[in-house]
Write a structure and sequence with these properties.
The structure holds two protein chains of two kinds. Chain A is built from six helices and eight strands; from the N terminus they run βααββαββαββαβα. By secondary structure, chain A is of the alpha+beta class. Chain A has a two-stranded antiparallel sheet. Chain A has a two-stranded antiparallel sheet with strand order 2-3. A two-stranded antiparallel sheet of chain A has the order 4-5. Chain B is built from ten helices and 26 strands. Chain B has helices at residues 10-22, 44-49, 64-67, 128-137, 151-162, 183-195, 291-305, 376-384, 403-412, 420-426, and strands at residues 2-6, 27-32, 70-74, 78-82, 87-90, 95-97, 100-103, 107-109, 122-124, 143-147, 166-171, 199-202, 206-210, 217-220, 225-227, 230-233, 237-239, 255-256, 268-270, 275-279, 284-286, 318-323, 326-332, 341-348, 353-360, 363-370. Classes of the chains: A alpha+beta, B alpha/beta.
């Protein structure tokens, strides 16, 4: 399964991934216009500090045995059989927040007015997710875990 | 090999999917006393409220049984298990033989033992059938009395308020949601609910439902009377263990199982609201009759029935509710019963925020968040993994607390955080 990995050694916690993610999930997809959108688009990744000088860009891990899918009472959160990715069906979501209650990574956010949740969807309109493209230190990458390990020389 | 599953809600459905993932060919029989199962029980109050339409209530599509090659006996009740003959007896006198059996019979609403409980216009809210019955009489209803201030009672109250009814909730204990949250969180919720026009009366119980054939009101134990045309009973549920009677399957409050979710009778498993399991936070046997636990138990029981060895670590109480835009989520212990527990609390009255964690010997045992609920799953994961959080105690309730802050704890942990995703995220630390 291909997903987004973060190399903590390279991550500065600069937040470029957050901005790129929010813009990609905005109506206009242009930073300048995004700022004046209402409601503002919601980022699906967060640059989080582990300790001073150490940061991680964290988001949905598309878990094998996804707690959000188990907890989802409407069937909106599901595993896509072909790819193994964790997907969210807005038509089924009722905004019960059971997935937020269950996600061990804090990777799911409320869209309050819409009574929906949002999380990393790997940017379906792009070849490479916006965060990966925007990362100035190449801490973020898209690939399999094997490819990620190779990339980090581990 | 023939698998038989009694029950077709959360646990039953997840068991079918788990079995089919491992065993494509063997026969699976599902027995359900509901004619049209496969809906989400948690959503029936949404349907009653009119916040979702009927289309949204289906947890799985109609084609579920066909796609999973399930022989479904619907609208038929399993009444007896003969463990020696490996047979399930149905209420139509038919028998179904099994090699592996899952008892996922769920739970039934507790009905109050008060005079008048059998009058027309008195309902629990447990099945899609109850919703339909309530809907069909709503036109004639002006006032509603809800007996019980738990999750179901309040969800019903919220739904009927949304339908324009005059709703009063009568709560025997001193505060609403007393099984789920502490008094501080409950009072925030109560304030919001009352502001929106639902009346809540605490410390009072109904002693009789009055009227002729139909409910016309309730008589309260404080001597007062309350007129209403509809009474909703929200007094919790009790596990449907009758089926285990005479079978040799061991029961306590619920059906007892080992860590494979197999009962004391080889080849017979139990999952969902009917099963009693080890509660991770309490460290004792308990029933957590909640959707996520039922799904996980169904999945694990199904895998073990199909010959895998998947261990069930135990259940954890967890609930998420929102009323009129104010959400509350709690996981694990919210009201510690002894001095052995420590509480850390953060209140932000201006933003309606209340956050609390409960610790025992530095290990998190419970958490409650009101209004600001993001990231609570991280703390839930600390509870599951029995993590000592002494080092992050001072920041755990802050707005900036996030996954990054527990990475050092994951790195240090020897036994916990076994899922591969944790290892993947800390690989490069």
């Amino acid at each position: 399964m291909k997903k987004i990995y973060c190399n903590i050694k390279k991550c500065l916690g600069c937040g470029s991934c957050e901005i790129a993610c929010a813009v990609e999930h905005s109506k206009s997809k242009e930073l300048n216009n995004t700022i004046s959108e209402s409601p503002l688009p919601i980022k699906r990744r967060k640059a989080e500090f582990v300790e001073e000088g150490v940061a991680i860009s964290a988001g949905c891990q598309h878990c094998d045995n996804a707690a959000c899918v188990t907890a989802c009472m409407s069937g909106a959160m599901y595993k896509e059989l072909k790819t193994g990715l964790t997907r969210h069906d807005r038509d089924k979501c009722v905004g019960c927040w059971m997935c937020i209650m269950s996600c061990p990574f804090g990777a799911i956010t409320r869209e309050k007015q819409e009574k929906q949740v949002v999380k990393c969807d790997l940017c379906p309109d792009r070849d490479k997710p916006a965060c990966v493209e925007a990362c100035p230190t190449r801490a973020l990458s898209l690939g399999t875990f094997k490819e990620f390990k190779k990339l980090c020389n581990m | 090999m023939q698998y038989v599953i009694i029950g077709s809600s959360a646990a039953g459905i997840n068991a079918v999917e788990a079995i089919r993932a491992k065993d494509k060919d063997s026969k699976i029989v599902v027995i359900s006393d509901e004619k049209k199962p496969l809906y989400s029980r948690c959503l029936i109050s949404y349907l009653l409220a009119g916040t979702i339409d009927e289309k949204k209530i289906w947890y799985r599509k109609d084609s579920f049984f066909k796609n999973n090659k399930v022989n479904a006996f619907l609208g038929i009740k399993a009444v007896e298990i003969n463990a020696k003959k490996k047979e399930v007896l149905l209420d139509n006198k038919e028998k179904v033989v099994f090699d592996k059996l899952l008892v996922a019979t769920g739970a039934s609403p507790k009905l109050e033992n008060i005079p008048g409980i059998d009058k027309a216009g008195v309902f629990p809210l447990r099945t899609i059938g109850h919703t339909a019955e309530i809907q069909s009489m709503l036109e004639k209803v002006k006032a509603v009395a809800v007996l019980g201030g738990g999750l179901i009672g309040l969800r019903a109250a919220y739904a009927l308020k949304a339908r324009g009814k005059d709703v009063s909730v009568f709560v025997k204990s001193g505060s609403i949601l007393s099984q789920i949250v502490d008094k501080d969180a409950a009072s925030l919720m109560q304030k919001r609910i009352e502001e929106k026009g639902i009346k809540i009366f605490t410390g009072v119980a109904a002693k009789e439902i009055t009227g002729d054939r139909s409910a016309k009101g309730i008589a309260l134990d404080n001597g007062l009377k309350h007129g209403c045309e509809l009474v909703i009973i929200g007094k919790g549920v009790s596990p449907n263990i009758e089926i285990a009677g005479g079978s040799g399957i061991k029961t306590n409050w619920g059906i007892l199982t080992n860590d494979s979710l197999e009962t004391n009778v080889e080849g017979i498993f139990a999952a969902g609201d009917v099963s009693e399991t080890n509660d991770i936070a309490l460290g004792e046997s308990s029933i957590n009759a909640i959707w996520p636990a039922a799904c996980e138990q169904g999945r694990i029981a199904g895998l073990n029935m199909a010959g895998e060895r998947e261990i069930y670590e135990g259940s954890l109480a967890m609930n998420s509710i929102e009323f009129f835009g104010l959400p509350v989520i709690s996981v694990g212990i919210t009201k510690p019963k002894s001095d052995a527990y420590e509480e850390i609390v953060r209140k932000d009255a201006a933003r309606n925020i209340y956050k609390k964690v409960v610790l025992k010997d530095g290990v998190v045992a419970g958490v409650t968040f009101v209004n600001s609920i993001e990231n609570i799953g991280i703390i839930g994961s600390l509870i599951k993994n029995k993590t000592n959080i002494e080092g992050i105690k001072n920041i755990i309730l802050e707005d900036y607390f996030d996954y990054g802050k527990i990475i050092p704890l994951i790195k240090k942990s020897k036994k916990g955080f076994r899922e591969p995703e944790f290892k993947e995220t800390i690989l490069t630390l």
